[in-house]
Design brief:
With 196 residues, the chain is of the alpha/beta class. It has a single domain, classed as 5'-nuclease (Rossmann fold), CATH 3.40.50. It has eight helices and ten strands. The longest helix has 11 residues.
Length: 196
């Protein structure tokens, strides 16, 4: 699936990858993840996309964002939108699909292989567009969770599908205990349609 001389770029949909790993019962060790893909090819860039609640004293994702920023990842963030839904529940929304798609298309001429860490079916047209530009695309997500975290159309479009659970021994670590409020923010940050 990977060739040592090919130029790779990682595109990590942070909330989607978090949800997939959580569904499989482990956390991602990003230092190990980066090392694994440095080993697999010539890593040009590792992008990580997430929305942040800017007005809170403590953001559960801030320590991770800061660590990634200092350790070889290109961070792409924007303020999350907080709102109250029709049932009176506090919700947080922060979709990063457009930012990821634009960055990928801009990198298309400089890479041979795109590795997309997301199961979101909205990325199918992006994958097709990258393939038309001659870029091979691997998608990392899971079909082993209930429900599966990858949209069938995205899995079919990709050149390669990498089952996240099969990377567990290479890039995983036991889940860390959550602080109060972490779970609510991170769970509400993502939207996973029934079909991915």
């Amino acid at each position: 699936m990977f060739y040592r001389d090919e130029r790779l770029a990682l595109f990590i949909d942070g909330s989607n990858l978090y949800a997939a790993a959580k569904a499989l019962g482990f956390d991602i060790d990003y230092k190990l993840l980066r090392s694994e893909f440095v080993r697999r090819g010539k890593l040009v860039r590792a992008f990580y996309y997430t929305a942040l609640l800017e007005d809170q004293d403590y953001s559960p994702i801030r320590p991770l964002v800061d660590w990634l920023d200092y350790n070889g990842f290109t961070m792409v963030t924007k303020p999350a939108k907080e709102f109250i839904d029709s049932m009176g529940r506090r919700k947080v929304k922060g979709n990063m699909d457009i930012e990821l798609a634009v960055d990928a298309m801009e990198m298309a001429d400089r890479i041979d292989h795109m590795v997309l860490f997301s199961g979101d079916g909205d990325f199918r047209p992006l994958v097709a567009g990258m393939q038309r530009k001659g870029v091979r695309v691997s998608v990392v997500s899971t079909i082993r969770s209930q429900p599966p975290m990858i949209a069938d159309e995205l899995r079919r479009q990709a050149d390669n599908f990498i089952e996240l659970e099969e990377l567990k021994d290479v890039v995983g670590r036991p889940p860390r205990p959550m602080r109060e409020g972490d779970e609510e923010f991170i769970a509400n940050e993502i939207e996973i349609p029934a079909d991915g």
